[in-house]
Amino acid sequence: MADHLGRAGIGAERLHLDEESQDTLENVVAAATFMRRRGLSRAVVCTDAYHVPRACMIFRQLGLEAERGPVPDGAAGMALEEWRRMSARERLAYPYDFAVTWMRRRELRALTLAR
User: 26: domain range?
Assistant: First the structure.
């Protein structure tokens, strides 16, 4: 994704990559913590197109604004079967993550403020 954003004209100094998170929720919590420490309230989410809605939803559950960044539409370089599999996975993961973040929203918001 960093390479794609560089080709889209986004300077490397503006990118903050998370190489430690194991899943989407951890990634968004780490990003929210990073943002709040710097007084930022809006995320531009750059990930695979099928994944953007869920990532943005989690940001919003944590009380932050989020919008889709300049990411390619559709399969964009993925094998079609892989894209279909991941899209189906997202349809299952979205309601799960919504429920988890809604039930844990106070805890997760506090976590992003405390770090």
Answer: 2-114
Number of domains in the chain: 1
- Using one digit for the tens of pLDDT, what is the confidence trace for 25-68? 999 999 999 999 999 999 999 888 888 999 999 999 999 999 99
Query: Following DSSP, what letter does each residue of the chain receive, concatenated?
Result: -HHHHHHTT--GGG-----S-SSHHHHHHHHHHHHHHTT--EEEE-S-GGGHHHHHHHHHHTT-EEEE-S---TTTTS-HHHHHHHHHHHHHHHHHHHHHHHHTHHHHHHHHHH-
Spatial neighbors of 83 by CB under 8 A, at least 6 apart, are 50, 74, 75
Instruction: Please tell me the pTM assigned to this model.
Output: 0.81
CA distance 115 to 108: 11
Mean pLDDT of the chain, nearest integer: 87
